[in-house]
Amino acid sequence: MKTYSPETPFDDYSPPVARVLSCIQPTGAVHLGNYLGALQQWVNGQHQNDVFHGIVDLHAFTVTESPGVLGQNTLELAAMLFAVGLDPNVATVFVQSHVVEHTTLSWMMECTVSFGELSRMTQFKDKSQKREAEFVSAGLFTYPALQAADILLYDADEVPVGDDQKQHIEITRDIAMRFNHRFGETFVLPKAVTPALGARVMDLQEPTNKMSKSTTNESGCIYLLDDPASIMKKFKRAVTDSDNEVSYDRDAKPGIANLLDILSAATGQKPQELASSYSQYGALKVDAGEAVCAMMSPIQQRYTELMNDRAELQRLLRVGAEKARVVASATVDRAKNAVGFLPE
Ligand code: TYM
Q1: What is the per-residue pLDDT across 65-79, written as a single tens digit (0 to 9) for each?
Q2: Which of the listed residues 61, 74, 154, 165 should we mutate to test ligand 1's pocket, taking the one with most ligand atoms within 8 A of CB?
Q3: pLDDT for 13-55, tens place per residue?
Q4: What residues flank ligand 1, with Cβ below 6 Å?
Q5: SS3 for 52?
Q6: Which of 118, 183, 255, 337 is deepest in the core (most CB within 10 A)?
Q7: Is the domain defined by 218-304 classed in CATH 1.10.240.10?
Q8: What's the helix, strand, coil split of the chain in %, to 5?
Q9: Looking at domain 10-198+309-339, does it have CATH number 3.40.50.620?
Q10: Which of 149, 147, 143 is nearest to 186 (CA)?
Q11: Mean confidence (pLDDT) of the chain
Q12: Pocket perturbation via mutation, ligand 1, pick of 161, 163, 213 by most ligand atoms within 8 A of CB
């Protein structure tokens, strides 16, 4: 596969199969939902596609109020992305704020999306409600415009995400269509790609809510850096129901369905088939926990090694930003020309 290198610049380079873009926020430890819903797909897709993955610190800034945290979280997340298996020789991994084109295009997107469309975004409603007693920034409201810029800048055909991001990809398509209609064909219309297994990992304590960094009960969320004893403890305490009959039914038995989904994502076996091989909840909890521990162990080892060489991590991110800028600046130029801004 041809990839970008100084000898084969992007000018003479056509994407091999699909251009893929997806991003993650540096807002704290990465959890099992992030891994099964998104990161695993990113790693699996990197050799077939031309992939760009951003650590979106500007998005995290919408809820950042203390100094010094964002940079550290960004570096740790970079280590995690390489630890889960993104290969810097094939995947372009970059930090959003290092590629200034994100903010330029974001403004153009803000002017192409309506107040009404932004008001209908469920993530804004959820997040602003959760922060009722706190500061709700305007950035939290206009967040989808920045996300649209992230995607459209890279001419992404596919955006591998968990279920919760589908609405953001839909609004990106709407914005792109509106811009193309107003100013002429400029942007590629992206589509969301969700994994067959693990697109919606639920909280172990509240299995009707998705697993999330902002959980109120830490034992509902499995972090990739949790040690095996805590992982097992969290699985053993997972909320289920009282009839002790293992069957796969997301509505009637959300806790058990979630455990089966997780075990299924870790083993590749179908959740319905797994259900028939268990007669008790206890054994299912132990097997799900052990499967997750086995999956996390090599990741944790690589993470520790990578965090020991911060200079190398920063070098890799500089290389990623350089590659990202080549594509992003061409798109911004194209968009500005389409609108007809006066050239410098
Ligand atoms: P973020 O940082 O919350 O999550 C990163 C990825 O993890 C997925 N995910 C889940 N998947 C399954 N089950 C869960 N419980 C779960 N929780 C999180 C998310 O779907 C996501 O794919 N707005 C985005 C970041 C973003 C972005 C982008 C994504 C900014 N620009 C451009 C794609 C393309 C977010 O907050 O993801």
Answers
A1: 899 999 999 999 999
A2: 165
A3: 554 589 999 999 999 899 999 999 999 999 999 999 999 999 9
A4: 21-25, 33-34, 37-38, 56, 59, 147, 150-151, 159, 161-162, 164-165, 168, 199-201, 210-212
A5: strand
A6: 255
A7: yes
A8: 55, 10, 35
A9: yes
A10: 149
A11: 94
A12: 161
Read off the tokens for 325: 């800028």
Report pTM: 0.94
Stated length of the chain: 344
**Boundaries of CATH 3.40.50.620 in the chain?**
10-198+309-339
pLDDT band at 1 (very low <50, low <70, confident <90, very high): very low
> Rounded distance, CA 99 to CA 19, Å?
18
Residue with token string 């008001």: 119
pLDDT above 70 as % of the chain: 95
Handedness of CA 306, 312, 314, 320 (dihedral sign): negative
Q: Where in the chain is the domain with CATH 1.10.240.10?
A: 218-304
- Give the residue carrying structure tokens 């920063």: 314
Beta strands in 85-238 (DSSP E): 92-95, 158-160, 191-193
Rounded to 5 degrees, φ, ψ at 48 are: -90, -25
The pLDDT assigned to 5 comes to: 56
Residues 6+ apart with CB under 8 A from 332: 101, 104, 105, 153
